[in-house]
Amino acid sequence: MPYTRREKILDACIVITFVATVCTVILFALLLTVLRPRCPVQKILPSITVASDGSGDFTTVSAAVAAAPQQSRKYFGIAIKPGVYYEEVRVPKEKTRLAFIGGGMGITVISSNRSWANPLEDTATLDVKGNGFVAMDITFEHTGDPTTGYTVAVANDAEDTAFHHCTFKGIKGVLKASGFPQFYGKSNIYGAVDVIWGTGSAIFQSSAVYVDKPYFPGQEQVPRALTFQQRSSPSSKEGFVFQGCSIDAAPGTHQSGSPPVFLGRPGGAYSRVVFMQSYLGGLLSPTGTGWLFDSSLSPATTLYLKEYNNRGPGEGPVERRITTGEAAQFTVGSFIEGDKWLPKTYVEYTSGFL
């Protein structure tokens, strides 16, 4: 039977109607996507505010910590307004899940200058022992005399702690990282000797470590180390991992005449440090094991200092490099089991390789 002109027109109308309907549905869906209310980015909201000018609930960070609840099951946010707060802040064990929320690195600053005590963390600008601690957008600095001892900006002995967009400044022993697990993301660390030390399991991700010049005359030719890691046994979880970081000389220090800086100084026979997917600058020693040995500890086969997929003039020899399979155990998701606890802190992180 011949296909009439009327039927052709009818079929064309059906096709046009179908196409128009589909386009309408797609357009409506797109409009809903654009116009519907967006869910806000989740974050820890402050419960109290610190302001040095008296415009907040407290004028010191220490007073705010004292007012925070004990053994909290949810995060208690403390907003710290821009300014420099000259004090030593202590977060004791009973103050769990505190969150310091600053106004930005170099904008909110907590500073102290007492250089010597035993134990060393007693002179730290910030001493953290309460589990679940979080800090973001703050500078912690220690301006004390390094010739009298460590200048500890932060001593972190707690578990499940995260620092994000923070700066740590000092000269010797700037950041003590002890306890399991710890995460430091998108942060800056400045120091000259044993910059990062301790017994912890910590990952430094997408951060920068700036190695300063020797801290007083006569030390220009003394070898130095970036880390001082103190793993206790071959089966323990401790170790430091630097992923996606930049390790280089501090800006404007002109250290061309200084001896190379070693990646680590072992704090025991089982010390473990890993540098992966990072830039290693020319100030670092590109030869040998990467360890700086002193008279108290000779080279041992149980030490572990390895590299994976690094770049830069300080990249080590083939003997230091590990395979992708071996490096996978040092990602955030594996080494510090970050997927189990970091989402609760609302800090940014990458679970696997960058």
From TrEMBL:
Pathway: Glycan metabolism; pectin degradation; 2-dehydro-3-deoxy-D-gluconate from pectin: step 1/5. This is Pectinesterase catalytic domain-containing protein. The lineage of its organism: Eukaryota, Viridiplantae, Streptophyta, Embryophyta, Tracheophyta. It comes from Aristolochia fimbriata. One of its GO terms (biological process) is cell wall modification. Residues 48-339 form the Pectinesterase catalytic domain. Keywords: Aspartyl esterase, Hydrolase, Membrane, Transmembrane, Transmembrane helix. One of its GO terms (molecular function) is pectinesterase activity. Signal peptide: none annotated. InterPro entries: Pectin_lyas_fold, Pectin_lyase_fold/virulence, Pectinesterase_cat. It holds the Pfam family Pectinesterase. It comes from the Eukaryota. The chain crosses the membrane at residues 12-35. The keyword Coiled coil does not apply. The keyword Magnesium does not apply.
